[in-house]
Amino acid sequence: MSLEVVAELPAIDADFLERARLAAGDLAEHERLCGEAGIFKQVEVRQPAGAVAHHHGPVRIGTWNAERCKYVGASVRLIRDSGCDVVLLSEMDVGMSRSANLHTLRALAGELGFGYAYCVEFLELGSGNQSEQVEYADEPNLAGLHGNGILSRFPLSDPLIVTSPAQGSWYSLDWHHRRLGGRRALFATVDTGPARIRVGSVHLESLSDSGTRAKELSALIEPADSMLPTVIGGDFNTTDVPDEHAPDAWFADPGRHEPLFDVFASAGFDWLDCNSPVPTRRTLGNGLPRPPHRRMDWLFRRGLVARDPRCWPAVNSAGHPISDHDLVSADMLPA
Protein backbone atom coordinates (compact mmCIF):
# COMPACT_ATOMS: atom_id res chain seq x y z
CA MET A 1 0.00 0.00 0.00
CA SER A 2 1.30 3.44 -0.94
CA LEU A 3 1.40 5.55 2.21
CA GLU A 4 0.99 9.33 2.32
CA VAL A 5 2.37 11.25 5.31
CA VAL A 6 0.21 14.26 6.18
CA ALA A 7 0.24 16.94 8.85
CA GLU A 8 -3.53 16.63 9.26
CA LEU A 9 -6.00 14.03 8.06
CA PRO A 10 -8.59 15.45 5.65
CA ALA A 11 -12.26 15.91 6.51
CA ILE A 12 -14.55 13.02 5.62
CA ASP A 13 -16.70 13.63 2.57
CA ALA A 14 -20.38 13.63 3.58
CA ASP A 15 -21.41 11.80 0.41
CA PHE A 16 -18.87 9.06 1.06
CA LEU A 17 -20.07 8.66 4.64
CA GLU A 18 -23.70 8.35 3.51
CA ARG A 19 -22.80 5.71 0.93
CA ALA A 20 -20.92 3.76 3.62
CA ARG A 21 -23.93 3.85 5.90
CA LEU A 22 -26.38 2.75 3.21
CA ALA A 23 -24.20 -0.16 2.11
CA ALA A 24 -23.71 -1.58 5.63
CA GLY A 25 -23.69 -5.36 5.58
CA ASP A 26 -22.39 -5.70 2.02
CA LEU A 27 -18.82 -6.91 2.55
CA ALA A 28 -17.86 -6.56 -1.11
CA GLU A 29 -18.91 -2.93 -0.99
CA HIS A 30 -17.00 -2.58 2.29
CA GLU A 31 -13.77 -3.60 0.55
CA ARG A 32 -14.42 -1.23 -2.34
CA LEU A 33 -15.12 1.68 0.00
CA CYS A 34 -11.99 0.97 2.04
CA GLY A 35 -9.97 1.11 -1.16
CA GLU A 36 -11.61 4.40 -2.12
CA ALA A 37 -11.15 6.12 1.25
CA GLY A 38 -8.03 8.26 1.40
CA ILE A 39 -7.81 8.14 5.19
CA PHE A 40 -6.81 4.46 5.12
CA LYS A 41 -3.77 5.31 2.99
CA GLN A 42 -2.53 8.17 5.18
CA VAL A 43 -0.63 8.60 8.42
CA GLU A 44 -0.70 11.87 10.34
CA VAL A 45 2.71 12.82 11.78
CA ARG A 46 3.74 15.81 13.89
CA GLN A 47 7.12 16.29 15.51
CA PRO A 48 7.74 17.25 19.16
CA ALA A 49 7.51 20.92 20.03
CA GLY A 50 10.97 22.51 20.22
CA ALA A 51 14.40 20.94 20.00
CA VAL A 52 14.95 17.57 21.69
CA ALA A 53 18.28 17.04 23.46
CA HIS A 54 20.13 13.80 22.88
CA HIS A 55 19.01 11.18 25.35
CA HIS A 56 21.44 8.95 27.20
CA GLY A 57 20.36 6.05 29.36
CA PRO A 58 17.23 3.90 29.25
CA VAL A 59 14.21 4.84 27.18
CA ARG A 60 10.92 4.19 28.95
CA ILE A 61 8.40 2.79 26.50
CA GLY A 62 4.78 2.21 27.44
CA THR A 63 1.72 0.80 25.78
CA TRP A 64 -1.88 1.65 26.56
CA ASN A 65 -5.34 0.97 25.19
CA ALA A 66 -6.89 4.31 26.17
CA GLU A 67 -10.49 3.17 25.47
CA ARG A 68 -11.38 6.14 23.21
CA CYS A 69 -9.30 8.53 25.40
CA LYS A 70 -12.43 10.19 26.77
CA TYR A 71 -10.51 11.78 29.66
CA VAL A 72 -7.67 13.78 28.15
CA GLY A 73 -6.64 15.63 31.31
CA ALA A 74 -6.44 12.48 33.41
CA SER A 75 -4.70 10.67 30.55
CA VAL A 76 -2.03 13.37 30.39
CA ARG A 77 -1.43 12.99 34.12
CA LEU A 78 -1.18 9.21 33.82
CA ILE A 79 1.38 9.38 31.01
CA ARG A 80 3.34 12.10 32.78
CA ASP A 81 3.35 10.17 36.05
CA SER A 82 4.51 7.02 34.26
CA GLY A 83 7.60 8.81 33.01
CA CYS A 84 7.23 7.30 29.55
CA ASP A 85 9.31 8.73 26.71
CA VAL A 86 7.27 6.84 24.10
CA VAL A 87 3.72 5.47 24.40
CA LEU A 88 2.17 3.03 21.93
CA LEU A 89 -1.54 3.81 21.98
CA SER A 90 -4.70 2.15 20.72
CA GLU A 91 -8.40 3.11 20.63
CA MET A 92 -7.68 6.79 20.02
CA ASP A 93 -10.64 8.85 18.78
CA VAL A 94 -10.58 11.77 16.38
CA GLY A 95 -13.78 13.80 16.10
CA MET A 96 -16.06 11.44 18.02
CA SER A 97 -18.88 12.88 20.13
CA ARG A 98 -18.19 10.34 22.88
CA SER A 99 -14.73 11.90 23.40
CA ALA A 100 -15.82 15.55 23.08
CA ASN A 101 -15.07 15.58 19.33
CA LEU A 102 -11.37 16.07 20.10
CA HIS A 103 -8.36 14.86 18.19
CA THR A 104 -7.40 12.98 21.34
CA LEU A 105 -3.82 12.10 20.35
CA ARG A 106 -3.08 15.66 19.27
CA ALA A 107 -4.52 16.92 22.55
CA LEU A 108 -2.24 14.60 24.55
CA ALA A 109 0.79 15.56 22.48
CA GLY A 110 0.07 19.27 22.90
CA GLU A 111 -0.16 19.01 26.67
CA LEU A 112 2.98 16.89 26.94
CA GLY A 113 5.07 18.64 24.28
CA PHE A 114 5.43 15.32 22.43
CA GLY A 115 5.22 14.45 18.77
CA TYR A 116 2.94 11.75 17.39
CA ALA A 117 1.98 9.51 14.52
CA TYR A 118 -1.61 8.40 13.95
CA CYS A 119 -3.33 5.95 11.64
CA VAL A 120 -7.04 5.30 11.18
CA GLU A 121 -8.34 1.79 11.79
CA PHE A 122 -12.05 2.54 11.59
CA LEU A 123 -14.41 5.15 10.26
CA GLU A 124 -17.25 4.94 12.77
CA LEU A 125 -20.71 5.00 11.21
CA GLY A 126 -22.45 6.00 14.43
CA SER A 127 -21.80 7.22 17.96
CA GLY A 128 -20.20 3.97 19.14
CA ASN A 129 -21.47 0.95 21.02
CA GLN A 130 -25.04 0.50 22.19
CA SER A 131 -24.78 2.64 25.32
CA GLU A 132 -22.85 5.37 23.46
CA GLN A 133 -25.48 5.43 20.73
CA VAL A 134 -28.06 6.30 23.38
CA GLU A 135 -25.91 8.77 25.31
CA TYR A 136 -24.66 10.68 22.24
CA ALA A 137 -27.67 10.30 19.95
CA ASP A 138 -28.08 14.08 19.60
CA GLU A 139 -24.37 14.91 19.27
CA PRO A 140 -22.94 14.33 15.78
CA ASN A 141 -19.39 13.20 15.18
CA LEU A 142 -17.16 15.80 13.53
CA ALA A 143 -14.88 13.19 11.94
CA GLY A 144 -15.75 9.72 13.28
CA LEU A 145 -12.21 8.30 13.27
CA HIS A 146 -10.74 5.66 15.58
CA GLY A 147 -7.24 4.22 15.44
CA ASN A 148 -3.72 3.68 16.73
CA GLY A 149 -1.07 6.19 17.69
CA ILE A 150 2.55 6.59 18.71
CA LEU A 151 3.30 9.37 21.18
CA SER A 152 6.98 10.33 21.46
CA ARG A 153 9.14 13.03 22.99
CA PHE A 154 11.73 12.11 20.34
CA PRO A 155 11.51 12.86 16.59
CA LEU A 156 9.60 10.30 14.51
CA SER A 157 10.43 9.05 11.02
CA ASP A 158 9.70 6.31 8.49
CA PRO A 159 6.09 5.56 9.43
CA LEU A 160 4.56 2.33 8.17
CA ILE A 161 1.02 0.95 8.31
CA VAL A 162 0.46 -2.80 8.08
CA THR A 163 -3.11 -3.98 7.52
CA SER A 164 -4.20 -7.07 9.40
CA PRO A 165 -5.75 -9.98 7.48
CA ALA A 166 -8.18 -10.60 10.36
CA GLN A 167 -11.78 -9.67 9.61
CA GLY A 168 -13.90 -8.77 12.60
CA SER A 169 -16.89 -8.08 10.32
CA TRP A 170 -17.64 -4.89 12.22
CA TYR A 171 -19.28 -3.44 9.11
CA SER A 172 -22.18 -5.89 9.18
CA LEU A 173 -22.72 -6.19 12.94
CA ASP A 174 -26.19 -5.38 14.21
CA TRP A 175 -25.49 -5.80 17.94
CA HIS A 176 -22.59 -3.39 18.16
CA HIS A 177 -21.33 -0.21 16.53
CA ARG A 178 -20.83 -0.52 12.78
CA ARG A 179 -17.54 0.57 11.30
CA LEU A 180 -15.74 0.83 8.00
CA GLY A 181 -12.15 -0.42 8.12
CA GLY A 182 -10.11 -2.99 10.00
CA ARG A 183 -7.17 -3.58 12.31
CA ARG A 184 -3.95 -1.85 11.26
CA ALA A 185 -0.60 -1.75 13.03
CA LEU A 186 1.40 1.48 13.05
CA PHE A 187 5.21 1.52 13.04
CA ALA A 188 7.74 4.36 13.18
CA THR A 189 11.34 5.05 14.15
CA VAL A 190 12.14 7.20 17.19
CA ASP A 191 15.50 8.97 17.21
CA THR A 192 16.90 9.48 20.71
CA GLY A 193 20.13 11.03 19.39
CA PRO A 194 22.57 8.27 20.27
CA ALA A 195 20.23 5.53 19.08
CA ARG A 196 17.28 4.83 16.81
CA ILE A 197 14.54 2.42 17.88
CA ARG A 198 11.79 0.98 15.72
CA VAL A 199 8.47 0.90 17.56
CA GLY A 200 5.08 -0.52 16.68
CA SER A 201 1.57 -0.01 18.05
CA VAL A 202 -0.64 -3.07 17.61
CA HIS A 203 -4.27 -3.82 18.48
CA LEU A 204 -5.21 -7.36 17.52
CA GLU A 205 -8.78 -8.23 16.58
CA SER A 206 -11.05 -8.84 19.56
CA LEU A 207 -13.58 -10.91 17.58
CA SER A 208 -11.14 -13.79 17.20
CA ASP A 209 -9.54 -16.83 18.83
CA SER A 210 -5.94 -17.62 19.77
CA GLY A 211 -5.14 -19.30 16.45
CA THR A 212 -6.48 -16.33 14.49
CA ARG A 213 -4.46 -13.94 16.66
CA ALA A 214 -1.26 -15.86 15.94
CA LYS A 215 -1.91 -15.74 12.18
CA GLU A 216 -2.77 -12.05 12.42
CA LEU A 217 0.48 -11.32 14.23
CA SER A 218 2.55 -13.32 11.71
CA ALA A 219 1.14 -11.18 8.92
CA LEU A 220 1.97 -7.98 10.84
CA ILE A 221 5.53 -8.78 11.89
CA GLU A 222 7.04 -9.82 8.56
CA PRO A 223 6.44 -6.61 6.55
CA ALA A 224 7.44 -4.49 9.56
CA ASP A 225 10.79 -6.28 10.09
CA SER A 226 13.69 -3.92 10.73
CA MET A 227 17.42 -4.14 11.40
CA LEU A 228 16.96 -1.57 14.16
CA PRO A 229 16.34 -2.48 17.80
CA THR A 230 12.57 -2.93 17.96
CA VAL A 231 9.79 -2.67 20.52
CA ILE A 232 6.25 -3.75 19.65
CA GLY A 233 3.45 -3.16 22.11
CA GLY A 234 -0.28 -3.03 22.34
CA ASP A 235 -3.52 -4.74 23.21
CA PHE A 236 -3.07 -8.30 21.95
CA ASN A 237 -6.44 -9.48 23.27
CA THR A 238 -4.78 -12.52 24.87
CA THR A 239 -8.02 -13.80 26.34
CA ASP A 240 -6.77 -17.39 26.57
CA VAL A 241 -4.02 -16.79 29.16
CA PRO A 242 -5.12 -17.71 32.70
CA ASP A 243 -6.84 -15.06 34.78
CA GLU A 244 -5.76 -13.05 37.81
CA HIS A 245 -6.23 -16.00 40.17
CA ALA A 246 -3.22 -17.85 38.69
CA PRO A 247 -0.74 -15.07 37.81
CA ASP A 248 2.53 -17.04 37.89
CA ALA A 249 1.61 -20.53 36.70
CA TRP A 250 1.65 -19.69 32.99
CA PHE A 251 3.92 -16.66 32.59
CA ALA A 252 7.18 -18.46 31.72
CA ASP A 253 5.51 -20.27 28.81
CA PRO A 254 2.41 -18.35 27.67
CA GLY A 255 2.66 -19.92 24.21
CA ARG A 256 0.84 -22.95 25.65
CA HIS A 257 -2.25 -20.75 25.79
CA GLU A 258 -1.58 -18.11 23.12
CA PRO A 259 0.57 -19.23 20.14
CA LEU A 260 1.27 -15.60 19.21
CA PHE A 261 4.07 -15.74 21.81
CA ASP A 262 5.73 -18.49 19.76
CA VAL A 263 5.41 -16.27 16.68
CA PHE A 264 7.23 -13.49 18.52
CA ALA A 265 9.91 -15.89 19.78
CA SER A 266 10.52 -17.19 16.25
CA ALA A 267 11.08 -13.59 15.13
CA GLY A 268 13.65 -13.02 17.88
CA PHE A 269 11.47 -11.12 20.34
CA ASP A 270 11.34 -11.63 24.10
CA TRP A 271 8.85 -10.45 26.73
CA LEU A 272 9.91 -11.89 30.08
CA ASP A 273 11.98 -8.87 31.18
CA CYS A 274 9.54 -6.21 29.96
CA ASN A 275 6.26 -7.56 31.37
CA SER A 276 4.90 -9.01 34.57
CA PRO A 277 2.08 -11.56 35.03
CA VAL A 278 -0.38 -9.06 36.55
CA PRO A 279 -3.71 -8.43 34.78
CA THR A 280 -4.03 -5.24 32.73
CA ARG A 281 -7.83 -5.01 32.48
CA ARG A 282 -9.98 -3.04 34.88
CA THR A 283 -13.72 -2.62 35.38
CA LEU A 284 -15.30 0.65 34.25
CA GLY A 285 -18.02 2.55 36.05
CA ASN A 286 -20.68 0.63 34.08
CA GLY A 287 -19.52 -2.64 35.64
CA LEU A 288 -17.79 -3.90 32.46
CA PRO A 289 -15.63 -5.77 31.80
CA ARG A 290 -16.45 -8.08 34.65
CA PRO A 291 -13.66 -9.82 36.59
CA PRO A 292 -11.71 -12.02 36.69
CA HIS A 293 -9.29 -10.07 34.51
CA ARG A 294 -6.33 -11.17 32.38
CA ARG A 295 -3.18 -9.64 31.00
CA MET A 296 -4.01 -8.48 27.50
CA ASP A 297 -1.46 -5.66 27.04
CA TRP A 298 2.18 -6.51 26.33
CA LEU A 299 5.57 -5.19 25.30
CA PHE A 300 7.93 -7.25 23.12
CA ARG A 301 11.54 -6.28 22.48
CA ARG A 302 14.36 -7.34 20.14
CA GLY A 303 17.92 -5.99 20.09
CA LEU A 304 17.41 -4.37 23.48
CA VAL A 305 17.35 -5.42 27.11
CA ALA A 306 14.58 -4.34 29.43
CA ARG A 307 14.18 -3.67 33.11
CA ASP A 308 11.63 -2.40 35.61
CA PRO A 309 8.38 -3.60 33.98
CA ARG A 310 5.49 -1.76 35.56
CA CYS A 311 1.72 -1.52 35.40
CA TRP A 312 0.19 1.93 35.93
CA PRO A 313 -3.47 2.01 37.06
CA ALA A 314 -5.66 3.86 34.55
CA VAL A 315 -7.55 5.92 37.11
CA ASN A 316 -7.97 9.63 37.76
CA SER A 317 -7.02 11.51 40.91
CA ALA A 318 -10.25 10.37 42.58
CA GLY A 319 -9.56 6.72 41.76
CA HIS A 320 -12.21 6.45 39.03
CA PRO A 321 -11.28 4.43 35.92
CA ILE A 322 -10.41 6.32 32.73
CA SER A 323 -9.95 3.17 30.61
CA ASP A 324 -10.67 -0.53 30.86
CA HIS A 325 -6.94 -1.18 30.32
CA ASP A 326 -3.99 -0.13 32.46
CA LEU A 327 -0.82 1.36 31.01
CA VAL A 328 2.25 -0.88 31.06
CA SER A 329 5.86 0.24 30.65
CA ALA A 330 9.45 -0.95 30.74
CA ASP A 331 12.85 0.72 30.47
CA MET A 332 14.73 -0.27 27.31
CA LEU A 333 18.52 -0.24 27.02
CA PRO A 334 20.99 -1.24 24.29
CA ALA A 335 21.71 -4.96 24.22
Name the features.
335 residues, alpha+beta, Deoxyribonuclease I, Chain A, 19% helix
Describe it.
Strands 1, 2, 3, 4, 5, 6, 8, 13 and 14 form a nine-stranded mixed beta sheet that branches. It contains seven helices and 14 strands. It has a single domain, classed as Deoxyribonuclease I, Chain A (4-Layer Sandwich). The protein is an alpha+beta fold and 335 residues long.
Give a nutshell description of this structure.
With 335 residues, this protein is of the alpha+beta class. It has a single domain (4-50, 57-334), classed as 4-Layer Sandwich (Deoxyribonuclease I, Chain A), CATH 3.60.10.
Which structural class best describes the helix and strand composition?
alpha+beta
Shape: globular
Mind summarizing the main beta sheet?
9 strands, mixed
What's the end-to-end separation, in Å?
Answer: 33 Å
Low-pLDDT runs of 5+ residues are: none
In the CATH hierarchy, the third-tier topology is known as Deoxyribonuclease I, Chain A
Q: So, CATH architecture?
A: 4-Layer Sandwich
What is the CATH level 1 assignment?
Answer: Alpha Beta
Q: What's the Cα radius of gyration? A: 19 Å
Strand content: 25-35%
User: How many separate helices?
Assistant: 7
Our count of domains comes out at: 1
**Taking all residues together, what is the mean pLDDT?**
93
In total, the number of strands is 14
CATH superfamily: Endonuclease/exonuclease/phosphatase
* Estimated helix fraction: 10-25%
User: What is the element string, with H for helices and E for strands?
Assistant: EHHEEHEHEHEEEEEHEHEEE
